Amino acid sequence: MSSSPQAPTHTGTHRHRRSATRTKPGIHPEYRPVVYRDKGADLAFLTRSTATSDQTVEWTDGNTYPVIDVQISSASHPFWTGKQRLLDTAGRVEKFRQKHARRGPQSG
Questions:
Q1: pLDDT for 41-92, tens place per residue?
Q2: What's the whole-number mean pLDDT along residues 95-108?
Q3: Distance CA 91, CA 87 (A)
Q4: DSSP state of 14
Q5: CA end-to-end span of the chain
Q6: Going by DSSP bridges, is the β-strand pair 56-58/64-69 parallel, antiparallel, or unpaired?
Q7: How many CB atoms lie within 10 A of CB 16?
Q8: How would residue 100 be classed by pLDDT, with cut points 50, 70 and 90?
Q9: Distance between CA atoms of residues 16 and 53, nearest Å
Q10: How far is CA 80 from CA 35, 45, 58, 75, 76, in A?
Q11: pTM of the model
């Protein structure tokens, strides 16, 4: 006999699993092709989303899709690119100190 415990077995049915295409009508947003564009990194990709946009772009397949402009993506994020942006932290700290400096003892 083996002394290691056995993994529990599940004999129930999986009725709770449904196909991604079968959803209750009328309560879900439309899931359709959308282009996400990171102008700073010159990257755009076509995917499916429920996001909406009034702007459109013609894609390489000749079709027109809604486009969502993002400020940062994997093509521009320092974690993924390995490049750091130089930040003026000394200037920011000084501005903070000036803004929140106490003007002497307050009476009250």
A1: 888 999 999 999 999 999 999 999 999 998 877 777 666 566 765 556 667 7
A2: 69
A3: 9
A4: -
A5: 81
A6: antiparallel
A7: 6
A8: confident
A9: 33
A10: 21, 17, 28, 7, 7
A11: 0.51
